[in-house]
Write a structure and sequence with these properties.
heterodimer; A: alpha/beta; Rossmann fold; 2 domains; six-stranded mixed sheet; 10 helices; 10 strands; globular; B: mainly alpha; 8 helices
């Protein structure tokens, strides 16, 4: 479980995160959503220690990350896996070497044991036959899956995913979302996903934080989000006319005014 | 003010490198990889420039040395000392600042921009130690060796040009080489090699490691790194000459 209390972070005069608090639960996909510039990436970078928050506490299973010394942070970070927006694979290494890198660095296992583990996680993310390929030779979706494989190879307790679906087509996005959800459940990890993709929100959003201009505007889950009365949240999720129509239809459906066959006459009244 | 801020950050980067490695084997592997990149990768250009520097030194010294009272073997003496004292360490390192320095700056800059450095940090790896220290150590090992190779090849190039252009015979050149040889000059050149090696590796590493932005900024960082390295090489060249000669 990750708990953060009253996180504040600014750059110069600009306050980017202004007193955000939440509890991110274990075994769940916790989504941080919001428009571009709402502070979700900065919040995630504060959580993993890439940025130092100006104020506030970040507790990993009760231990305050902000007051840890370098050695304690190193130990904790070995329990953190992160998937970056651009995958952040090492260009000069093959897929196999990329995934094996954390094992090389932090374990004393034999090569065959490490290779077995690498193949295991690559299978987990449905990637076979690409071991000897370089990142430049594989597709964006594959890179994301290699990124996930590298993030989970050390069996981390916490998984952070920064915009896992950016630049991917809807079908591949769905594959990545399902993979994140499956891994979260299987390894009982605390997963934090930073996204503005509404498909992901509806697919895996068991716990959602909506960020707006550096503050937490709304908190809930994917079954509550479309019924929210929060205007800012509604402006974000129902940005297109198509989605607004879909929402109206869903509302009518829930109220029993239309059935699954979509009674359009009723909807248009 | 900006200079002091940048210099302070540079010193902190150097200080940040000195931590216990997470895995000695991986660090050793990285040092060897960098030795190959910096040393073997630059061998070709060093061979070419040092031979031609020596050759040109011989021809131009002969052109200026017109007095009949000065023995012809003096050309070899002058070529030897200029190559050892100045051309082999300084000119070679200025060329290496371009070759090695731009590579270090752009490699680290690209890693920064594509979040590879962040990925290493998240894994719990000290990136200053893992990415920068092997480059500096490899430069400290390989660049003085390249300077020594440049000395030998520069003198050989001078001998080749001298005999090929019928300026002086091989015997006269060899005789001149052995006259009034001061071994301290070689030591001085090696000291310069170590100093320049540190400059060539650490300054581009600094500019690459702290790059912000995208492809354009990586290019800018690379250019700034090379220019700054060259200026620092020439400045320290003067300081070392004033202190040690």
């Amino acid at each position: 479980m990750i708990e953060f209390k009253n996180i504040k972070k600014g750059f110069g005069d600009k306050v980017v995160i202004n007193g955000v608090s939440a509890v991110l639960e274990t075994g769940k996909a916790n989504l941080i959503i919001g428009t571009s510039g709402s502070g979700k990436t900065v919040l995630m970078k504060c959580l993993v220690g890439l940025f130092e928050p100006d104020e506030g506490e970040i507790l990993y299973d009760g231990k305050d990350f902000t007051t840890m010394n370098d050695d304690e942070r190193k130990m904790l970070r070995q329990q953190i896996g992160m998937l970056f927006q651009g995958s952040a694979l090492f260009d000069s290494m093959t897929v196999e070497q990329n995934v094996m890198f954390p094992l090389d660095m932090f374990t004393k296992d034999s090569f065959s044991t490490k290779l077995k583990r690498v193949n295991e996680v690559l299978d987990k993310v449905n990637l076979g036959e690409v071991n000897k390929k370089f990142p430049a030779e594989i597709s964006g979706g594959m890179k994301k899956r290699v990124g996930i494989a590298r993030a989970i190879v050390l069996n981390p307790k916490y998984l952070f995913c920064d915009e896992p679906n950016s630049g991917l087509d809807p079908q591949t996005s769905l594959v990545i979302d399902k993979l994140i959800h499956q891994i979260t459940k299987e390894y009982n990890m605390t997963t934090v996903v930073n996204t503005h993709d509404m498909n992901s929100v509806m697919e895996i959003g068991e716990h959602i934080l909506y960020m707006f201009e550096g503050i937490k505007e709304w908190e809930g889950n994917n079954s509550e989000i479309i019924f929210s009365k929060n205007q800012k949240l509604n402006d974000f999720i129902f940005a297109s006319e198509f989605l607004r129509d879909a929402k109206d239809m869903r509302m009518l459906e829930v109220r029993g005014k239309i059935d699954n066959d979509r009674n359009m006459d009723e909807l248009l009244k | 003010m900006t200079f002091f801020t940048e210099f302070g950050r540079y010193l902190l980067m150097i200080k940040g490198m000195f931590t216990r490695p997470e895995n000695f084997k991986m660090y050793w592997k990285e040092i060897m990889h960098q030795c190959n990149d910096i040393g073997i990768g630059s061998l070709g250009i060093v061979l070419i420039i040092s031979v031609f520097i020596g050759a040109v030194s011989t021809v131009q010294t002969a052109y200026q040395l017109v007095s009949p009272v000065i023995p012809i073997s003096t050309i070899a003496q002058i070529v030897r000392d200029t190559v050892i004292l100045e051309f082999a360490p300084t000119l070679t390192c200025i060329v290496l600042a371009g070759v090695v320095g731009s590579k270090i700056a752009s490699e680290l800059g690209n890693m920064r921009v594509s979040e590879q450095i962040d990925a290493l940090e998240i894994m719990g790896i000290n990136t200053k130690s893992y990415l920068i220290m092997p480059k500096i150590l490899a430069a400290l090992i390989m660049i003085p060796l390249l300077v020594i190779i440049a000395m030998v090849l520069g003198i050989w190039g001078g001998r080749l040009a001298g005999t090929a252009s019928h300026i002086l015979s091989a015997e006269s050149f060899d005789k001149g080489l052995l006259q009034a040889f001061v071994p301290y000059n070689v030591f001085f050149a090696v000291v310069k090699g170590y100093t320049f090696a540190f400059i060539i590796s650490s300054i581009p590493a600094y500019f690459g490691y702290y790059v912000k932005g995208g492809a354009l900024e990586i290019g800018r960082a690379s250019t700034t790194a090379v220019v700054t390295s060259c200026i620092m090489i020439l400045f320290s060249d003067y300081i070392l000459a004033a202190l040690l000669l």
